[in-house]
Amino acid sequence: xxxxxxxxxxxxxxxxxxxxxxxxxxxxxxxxxxxxxxxxxxxxxxxxxxxxxxxxxxxxxxxxxxxxxxxxxxxxxxxxxxxxxxxxxxxxxxxxxxxxxxxxxxxxxxxxxxxxxxxxxxxxxxxxxxxxxxxxxxxxxxxxxxxxxxxxxxxxxxxxxxxxxxxxxxxxxxxxxxxxxxxxxxxxxxxxxxxxxxxxxxxxxxxxxxxxxxxxxxxxxxxxxxxxxxxxxxxxxxxxxxxxxxxxxxxxxxxxxxxxxxxxxxxxxxxxxxxxxxxxxxxxxx
Length: 286
What we know:
- By secondary structure, the chain is mainly beta.
- It is elongated.
- It starts with 22 loop residues before the first strand and ends with a strand.
- It has a six-stranded antiparallel beta sheet with strand order 2-3-13-5-6-10, with no helix packed on it.
- It has one domain (18-286).
- A hairpin with a 4-residue loop joins strand 11 (208-210) and strand 12.
- The chain is built from no helices and 13 strands.
């Protein structure tokens, strides 16, 4: 009499386990529960070497944040956060090039800083747009457009903030917001992935929390004269209203905008650098 299978060297049950799950290389690899994360803080390649039963991969792609503005005769605007993309895609067993955008560099003591650089996931053509730099009234320069827009400048030259231009890209959903625009004495905050920059209190727009690791990314930089950076790596604007000073840098690998500087008695000061971006892939590996 036969039961259709045998054991102890005479046969085996069907295989279950490793072959059922996706395998990949690239970036800094960590695990949490049944999931594996590949985090890229610099350029590299994410290569899927085997697709499992579930080919779904969660992706976060954040561009570099814009620089906060320096100041001479005004209060500098906060930098806009880098554009933010997220989503889940069914990927193939192939290579995906990864470009991680640098944060925008602060300008010279009274100059306009730079916008952040784009982050890109190749093959799916997903592009997160770099954040816009903050406005500088000394140069009569408005905040730049970007993934999120740079904040406007404050007293005595109120230049406008920039617009958030991040849209959907490569099958991922995009987030970005405008910088604050033409507040009064306080310079305006840069936009964040989760909210606009403030034109009244100078705070940077809040970032957005990624479900993969519950961390916030892409917060806007605070405007000079006491503006706080947005949750998600935004740098604070200089916050001692009794003396001049430089804005804080955005946090590296968050896409946070740099903080704006504050002038007092004609002092020339620097805005903060924008924070560099990040790209993360997440999938079930066991």
